[in-house]
């Protein structure tokens, strides 16, 4: 158990007493507190629970307090009040709680007496925490970094509050709409003994029931971590609901148990006998003599006595039948962990699952694959919020000498909470009501402002100290707090070319932080500006820059308030890892806007499309359009366009030219009243195109217009497909990537048809129906069209049944084994999307959805997003990487590129004119035009870039107290995918200590940071078919840290 100072506001005395108490009661909680069962009987484990969505139909606050009950009855505070009261009435009663976000809020509102009562209930096992994350995260759209963070936030809160007795042994993902293999791997590394979930494909479920295979060993990392990633996994019989007729909540319609024969409604015998029959039916597919029965559902137990009074009777009278009728059914209050303990004791051999549980279908025409792409702007916001949070956490350690103040830590936490909430399975998934989605966005915005203060202070602190000076001082000139609230401004709308700071300042410093533990080479900076005349200074002097036009469709985005008409582009040879780099940008007052230099950059070198803006004759224009045109860079990458259509035609890299056609298409969303399966509508959850074929409709066969702009750093092709779809295809000079920046919306629905917008990249690469998608941004999972690995799949929906979540990348290859260097095309994205390969050699990604019907799975409104009085506009990026045979590019390069995207560099803007007064003099050297000192500023952890190999990622650097921080190191390559980078690595612990600030000690923990690694003792399971014994987790030995492919190690660092 990790006993660390409680880093949250208040409760210090209570926590101190808790730790003393918990140390003496560990033997009475956890598995040791489980009730006795009866061998030879069907033991029915009744699990009282309430599934409390952290936002869905109501906002987080509304669900907690019980507001807006006309939408849904639900008030978490009353549930916890009522349950705690009822648990005290009988030591046999149990209750499990899951969502730490709600429990934390309730706990902080209790007085010391109530906290003492709750602590006793936790210590004796009556109140048990299951899962323990801040939320029950989505498994399709959440990035692994965010999953780990939100789990850590919850798990450490429970540990800091209650100690070992609150450590969850079981993961509980009962409501997410499909399940990821990476999630299982992460749970195993967090020390969980098992996982239970409620949703799996209806065909899979029936097949498993018939084959008594509802419980299995899930191999979360079969190619890398081996049985260190094994996780017992159980599919619940009835989702997370009670049996029909046995919902005893105050809002349920089922009859209570009437055990008074004098009353006309007497139903005891009927209730008991029916329950015995149900218990036998539920137990049959499990074969262990035990069955887990969930007694609860959404937002129940607000009047917990109605449940417990009836469950007490059910237990009493069903068990009495053992004597009177020789019944072999034994009923008891229990928890998932107690049930798991009995399954483990049975020593039943289990099958081993190596793939995942995507896609999930609940009936023949309801594939839950639409939410992979629903609400694309929210998905982007969540991804960028995580990016900024990682920067904030790193700087809270690295810029404050490893000793941040409690105030800084609190500001970090103020952003960690909403980012954690955003991982909820109805948040990032895009499946909440619109007003709830707006609330998620507001929470992220407010939290981001809190972390902006941390990053601003960190930047200022780093700027104050030159690279040669000692960085011990934590103090700032008092006068700095006067005047402006911050020196640095941050721009979070760069995706629509908006940055108020760079648009309004005439002379400013751009400070760029690289959060990767490796240098970024040959990168390019883009800044929105209102004028085309600028000079850029770097450490070595003037940097040649380029000015490009912002596309006209972007300028016309509804609600876009910006003076920017251009983007300034300049190259950076190297951005040092974990360091701050400075550049000064000054408006050029000597050059004329109509100068040849500027005009040549802003004038298109080629135009075309259905409307040709050219002064040449029609004959000359026609001849010109019959020729393909090519743009290329100095890295040997070239892309060829069809002059007539204005569309991409092929990609050339190395000695290989691959035909690549890219276009936009749409599926009409199925309209329906959901009265039966065949009338299922496409909605927030469900993707159901109104076609039985696999082919969507193309937006156009020829772009409306295109312009080609060529420069020294980037060449761009601006394409307009329709009035609501446009795109920029970019080729930077020193890169292996082709960048596609698409813009969709407002999607027209005036024809009363909802539409699902996709893009396709079509090639001639032979793929035999095989493609690869990432799992939560990490491991790759092999897919095969119209195929399921573990059951005989019967196809009903041709397209949606082949859609999978794509969190960071999707690949196709001429070789089904990516380690064999076949010709490979990878497309990386900037947010979670649904993707597939409906035809060989093709990649398809869904970009936007606007629908007019609800799919009848609870949200109660169509997915028809609007903003500023019209349909929502979404803008985002794809990156195309051609690799493998003949290209000179390693297939594994997608690893590095994906990390560059999700851990993107962070820019801050400071107005030089504000630094002329004496109160800002300490920064003047960094930005003064008289004596420019634009050298990089190191953080106190910049030395990690010299210690960590290139295949090791600094996943987490997070303060947990003024004298402790979490450190996570990740080997981010898979075994066999690269001859060098896929090898295990060894890191000297001594070198690691030297690279970190004033380290006193380092101790390894589980992935969740809530248990010492040496204390982790997970259940072992017996596979039905013997597997290779390849447990690849290695502990820190002989002063060295060994990281195997895909392994993450977590440390608590004491300073």
Automatic annotation (TrEMBL):
The cofactor named in the record is: Zn(2+)
Q: Which Pfam families match?
A: Alpha-mann_mid (PF09261), Glyco_hydro38C2 (PF17677), Glyco_hydro_38C (PF07748), Glyco_hydro_38N (PF01074)
| CDD domains listed in its UniProt record | GH38N_AMII_LAM_like (cd10810)
Query: In what residue span(s) does the Glycoside hydrolase family 38 central domain sit?
Result: 366-444
List its EC numbers: 3.2.1.-
Q: How is the cofactor bound?
A: Binds 1 zinc ion per subunit.
Sequence similarity: Belongs to the glycosyl hydrolase 38 family.
Instruction: Give the protein's recorded name.
Output: Alpha-mannosidase
To which species is this protein native? Orchesella dallaii
């Amino acid at each position: 158990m990790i006993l660390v100072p409680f880093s949250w506001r208040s409760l210090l005395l209570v926590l101190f007493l808790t730790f003393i108490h918990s140390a003496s009661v560990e033997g009475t909680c956890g598995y040791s507190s489980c009730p006795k069962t009866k061998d030879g009987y069907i033991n029915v484990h009744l699990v009282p629970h309430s599934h409390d969505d952290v936002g869905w139909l109501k906002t987080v606050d509304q669900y907690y307090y019980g507001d807006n009950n006309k939408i849904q009855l639900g008030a978490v505070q009353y549930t916890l009040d009522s349950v705690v009261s009822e648990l005290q009435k009988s030591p046999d009663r149990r209750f499990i709680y899951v969502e730490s976000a709600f429990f934390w809020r309730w706990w902080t509102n209790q007085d010391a007496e109530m906290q003492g009562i709750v602590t006793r209930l936790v210590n004796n096992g009556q109140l048990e925490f299951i899962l323990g994350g801040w939320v029950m995260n989505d498994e399709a759209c959440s990035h692994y970094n965010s999953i780990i963070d939100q789990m850590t936030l919850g798990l450490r809160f429970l540990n800091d509050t209650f100690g070992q007795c609150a450590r969850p042994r079981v993961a509980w993902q009962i409501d997410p709409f499909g399940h990821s293999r990476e999630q299982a791997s992460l749970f195993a590394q967090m020390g969980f003994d098992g996982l239970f979930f409620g949703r799996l494909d209806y065909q899979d479920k029936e097949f498993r029931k018939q084959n008594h295979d509802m419980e299995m060993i899930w191999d979360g990392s079969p190619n890398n971590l081996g049985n260190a990633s094994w996780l017992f996994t159980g599919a619940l019989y009835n989702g997370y609901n009670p049996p029909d007729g046995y919902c005893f909540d105050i809002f349920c319609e089922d009859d209570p148990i009437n055990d008074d024969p004098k009353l006309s409604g007497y139903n005891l015998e009927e209730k008991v006998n029916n329950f015995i029959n149900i218990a036998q039916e539920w137990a049959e597919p499990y074969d262990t003599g035990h069955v887990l029965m969930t007694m609860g559902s959404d937002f129940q137990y607000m009047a917990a006595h109605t449940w417990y009074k009836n469950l007490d009777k059910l237990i009493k009278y069903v068990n009495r039948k053992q004597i009177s009728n020789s019944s072999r059914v034994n009923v008891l209050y229990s928890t998932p962990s107690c049930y798991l303990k009995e399954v483990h004791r049975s020593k039943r051999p289990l099958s081993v699952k190596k793939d995942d549980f995507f896609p999930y279908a609940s009936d023949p025409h309801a594939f839950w694959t639409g939410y992979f792409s629903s609400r694309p702007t929210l998905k982007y916001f969540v991804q960028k919020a995580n990016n900024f949070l990682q920067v904030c956490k790193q700087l809270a350690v690295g810029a404050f000498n490893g000793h941040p103040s409690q105030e800084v830590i609190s500001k970090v936490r103020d952003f960690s909470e909403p980012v954690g909430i955003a991982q909820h399975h109805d948040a990032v998934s895009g499946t909440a009501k619109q007003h709830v989605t707006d609330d998620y966005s507001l929470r992220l915005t407010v939290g981001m402002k809190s972390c902006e203060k941390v990053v601003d202070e960190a930047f200022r602190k780093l700027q104050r100290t030159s690279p040669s000076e000692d960085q011990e001082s934590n103090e700032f000139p008092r006068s700095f707090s006067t005047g402006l609230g911050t020196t640095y401004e941050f721009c979070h709308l760069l995706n629509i070319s908006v940055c108020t700071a760079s648009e309004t300042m005439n002379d400013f410093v751009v400070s760029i932080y690289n959060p990767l533990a490796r240098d970024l080479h040959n990168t390019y900076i883009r800044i929105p500006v209102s004028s085309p005349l600028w000079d850029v200074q770097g450490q070595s002097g003037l940097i040649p820059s380029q000015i490009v036009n912002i596309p006209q469709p972007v300028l016309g985005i509804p609600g876009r308030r910006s003076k920017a008409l251009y983007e300034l582009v300049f190259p950076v040879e190297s951005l040092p890892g974990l360091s701050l780099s400075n550049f000064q940008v000054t408006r050029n007052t000597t050059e004329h806007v109509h100068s040849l230099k500027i005009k040549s950059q802003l004038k298109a070198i080629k135009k075309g499309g259905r409307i040709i803006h050219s002064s040449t004759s029609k004959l000359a224009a026609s001849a010109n359009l019959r020729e393909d045109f090519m743009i290329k860079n100095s890295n040997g990458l070239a892309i060829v366009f069809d002059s007539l259509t204005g569309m991409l035609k092929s990609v050339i890299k190395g000695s290989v030219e691959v035909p690549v056609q890219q276009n936009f298409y749409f599926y009409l969303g199925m309209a329906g009243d959901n009265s039966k399966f065949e009338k299922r509508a496409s909605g927030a959850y469900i993707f159901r195109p109104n076609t039985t074929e696999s082919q969507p409709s193309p937006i156009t066969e020829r772009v409306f217009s295109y312009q080609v702009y060529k420069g020294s750093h980037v060449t761009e092709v601006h394409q307009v497909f329709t009035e609501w779809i446009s795109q920029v295809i970019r080729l930077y000079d020193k890169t292996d990537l082709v960048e596609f920046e698409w813009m969709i919306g407002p999607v027209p629905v005036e024809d009363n048809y909802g539409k699902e917008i996709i893009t396709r990249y079509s090639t001639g690469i032979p793929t035999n129906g095989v493609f690869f998608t990432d799992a939560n941004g990490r491991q790759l999972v092999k897919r095969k069209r119209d195929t399921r690995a573990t059951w005989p799949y019967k196809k009903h929906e041709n397209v949606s049944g082949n859609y999978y979540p794509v969190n960071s990348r999707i690949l196709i290859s001429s070789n089904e084994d990516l380690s064999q260097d076949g010709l490979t095309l990878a497309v990386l994205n900037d947010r979670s999307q649904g993707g597939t390969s409906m035809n060989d050699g093709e990649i398809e990604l869904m970009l936007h959805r606007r629908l007019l019907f609800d799919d009848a799975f609870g949200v109660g409104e169509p997915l028809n997003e609007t903003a500023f009085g019209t349909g929502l506009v979404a803008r985002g990026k794809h990156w195309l990487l051609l690799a493998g045979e003949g290209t000179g590019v390693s297939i594994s390069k997608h690893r590095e590129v994906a990390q560059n995207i999700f851990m993107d560099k962070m820019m801050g803007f400071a107005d030089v004119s504000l630094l002329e007064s004496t109160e800002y003099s300490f920064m003047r050297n960094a930005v003064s035009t008289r004596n420019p000192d634009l050298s990089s500023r190191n953080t106190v952890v910049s030395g990690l870039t010299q210690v960590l190999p290139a295949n090791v990622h600094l996943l987490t650097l997070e303060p947990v107290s003024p004298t402790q921080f979490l450190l996570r190191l990740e080997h981010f390559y898979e075994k066999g995918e690269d001859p060098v980078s896929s090898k295990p690595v060894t890191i000297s612990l001594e070198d690691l200590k030297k690279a970190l600030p004033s380290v006193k000690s380092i101790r390894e923990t589980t992935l969740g940071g809530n248990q010492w690694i040496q204390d982790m003792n997970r259940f072992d399971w017996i596979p039905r078919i013997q597997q290779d014994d390849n447990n690849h987790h290695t502990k820190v030995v002989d002063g060295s840290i060994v990281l195997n492919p895909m392994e993450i190690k977590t440390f608590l660092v004491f300073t």
